[in-house]
Amino acid sequence: MTTTTLVLGAGGATGKKVVDYLVAKKQSKVIFGVRSPDKHKDLIAKLGVDASRQDVSSVDTLDFTNIDKVVFCCSAATYAGAHSVDYMGVVNCIDAAKKAGCVKHFVLISSRLVDPVNRWHPVRMILNTIKWNLMDNKFKGEQALLSSSIDYTIIRPGGLTDADAGAYIEACPAEGKLTATSICRSDVANVVVECLENEKAKGKIVELVSRERKDGEKGYEARLAEIF
């Protein structure tokens, strides 16, 4: 039976990658969820996907009817938007998922360093300042998902880059130790696609970075398959 996956924030840099890779896999019907579908009509037509107006900051616009899986790729675009998007946006989506009663897996793309134990880390402090309390609100969004009854996966990437996919992906549980600090959006998108197809991904928080592959290390596809 074909599943339906709604990608929220599909018009963003990471969301576009997730949609692109899901379409290439051809294992799920993909819904391009954005605040303003008309703004992305050319891309939507090119990808051949359905679009849906879904504004995570406005619960009245959210409709998850017949949605099996949700990928939350949204993040505040404005200085003061983190509370309404990164925190309440997740809460609103949880409510919409519960109302629909059909969502089997909710994947949240968060960030490394969101946990307040890292409050004095300079990178966290900078991100919390650039966008008012961004990291604090991302963490609250995580906590809302953790306390819900929905099967979840939380993905915490390091600093996002636009490099090509194919580096060696390092992964660890929440607050684990990793040697690198960044990861490209394409690698994150590939991990999202993998977790949507892997039952072992449910109920996990995974932190991700990527680095140059060393001699003898597994190839890209093999590494993806063992992340969870």
From TrEMBL:
Domain annotation NAD(P)-binding: ranges: 9-198
A Pfam family that the UniProt record links to this protein: NAD_binding_10
InterPro entries recorded: NAD(P)-bd_dom, NAD(P)-bd_dom_sf
Domain of life: Eukaryota
Coiled-coil regions, chain positions: none
Protein name in UniProt: NAD(P)-binding domain-containing protein
